[in-house]
Amino acid sequence: MTVINSHRKAKALKQGSRRPAKDLCSECGLCDTYYIHYVKEACAFINQQITELETIAHGRSRDLNNENDLYFGVHQEMMSAKKIEPIEGAQWTGIVSTIACEMLTQGLVEGVVCVQNSDEDRFQPKPIIATTTEEILGAKVNKPTLSPNLSVLEQIEQSGMKRLLVIGVGCQIQALRAVEDKLGLEKLYVLGTPCVDNVTRAGLQKFLETTSKSPDTVVAYEFMQDFRVHFKHEDGSVEKVPFFGLKTNQLKDVFAPSCMTCFDYVNSLADLVVGYMGAPFGWQWIVVRNDIGREMLDLVKNQLHTQPVISRGDRTQAVQNSIPAYDQGVTLPMWAAKLMGVVIEKVGPKGLEYARFSIDSHFTRNYLYVKRNYPEKLKDHVPEYAEKIVSQYKLPD
Ligand code: FAD
Ligand code: SF4
């Protein structure tokens, strides 16, 4: 009890004030609450402790000699899945929102931490504790900006809720796990999504304006397995821009420094992870990490088509080629980018091998970023699994 009470004396930081992680802050929301008391241990960018927290959350840390564990974290099972009846307007088919709704209506939890958008701006995140299915569905679709999901943590303790589901991305979940035993909960469920290349609201505007033909009408976007960015517009049309045609020289500084130093793409500490990158196009990718995750997935299994994960192709040369291309900010002319996209889509990595392609390209890029910008952090901040992944490639100095 003394532990639970001690943090209440701490004071949340004022909005806009500098956070303890300084430039590396991902605005996870912890410092907007009195749980800032634990920031030095809890912050993913001050104290990377994935291995230790894996053991607490899943009963073991990942086995670095097992390739699927090395890449995708501790898991019991992976599969491809899609909703038999997709939720209109969800990011993909709405598996995340469906699980949250079932957990609430079946009484497993009293509330769900998720993120809606503000009334004025569809991309401005507004974290809430949802207590109705309408509120959960109001949070569907990605807010592709840094989102302070943990800013509602104080309300949990004050509300007296004992059973809670939290939906979030890796940095939010890492801080959450570090304070989990201080929240006064009887049961916590954690539903994660993978996350990469996130941006501030201002950074998002720059990305949309540099990349889309109609930035003001974009309602959602995703970096897809066909090596194109798909922008969904208000009128339902989809604009596709090849990765290789992105204006990398202008976009180099657009991603948040936190995301340039992140090695938790696959949300290692969630009980259940729902993404897309390990699945064939049009399907979602599910990683069941532990028994709690299995319990959550079982609630919706009858609403899903499922199939085993596949893995085809060889990513390594494409990753090696991407390293200097990104480093030097090379942009191909649009006709060449389209051609390259088509060729790679035909012969390129598929399923889990595509996910490895994406992890390898981001980890090598981020490793170089940390080495150049935060050399003093390299040793402690880069987890051992990420070092092993990066060591497969030749990196420039
Ligand atoms: P929905 O039913 O539409 O629900 C989406 C849920 O996400 C909502 O509950 C909402 O609360 C939550 N959410 C939205 N924005 C945020 C945010 N900024 N922070 C925390 N929670 C949020 N998957 C991959 O496989 N590879 C990737 O590279 C990848 N990158 C991603 C980057 C970002 C910034 C985000 C937020 C997600 C990313 N994902 C990625 C996950 C993927 O895009 C989908 O979110 C996931 O597959 C769930 O789809 P759905 O239709 O089931 O979700
Ligand atoms: Fe605080 Fe979260 Fe920022 Fe770390 S990332 S400084 S915990 S708000």
UniProtKB/TrEMBL annotation:
> Residue ranges of the Coenzyme F420 hydrogenase/dehydrogenase beta subunit N-terminal domain?
78-154
User: Which InterPro entries does the UniProt record give?
Assistant: Co_F420_Hydgase/DH_bsu_N, FRHB/FDHB/HCAR-like, FrhB_FdhB_C
Where do the Coenzyme F420 hydrogenase/dehydrogenase beta subunit C-terminal domain residues begin and end? 162-307
The UniProt entry, under Pfam families, shows:
FrhB_FdhB_C, FrhB_FdhB_N
Q: Which GO terms describe its molecular function?
A: oxidoreductase activity, acting on CH or CH2 groups, with an iron-sulfur protein as acceptor
Q: What is this protein called?
A: Coenzyme F420 hydrogenase/dehydrogenase beta subunit domain protein
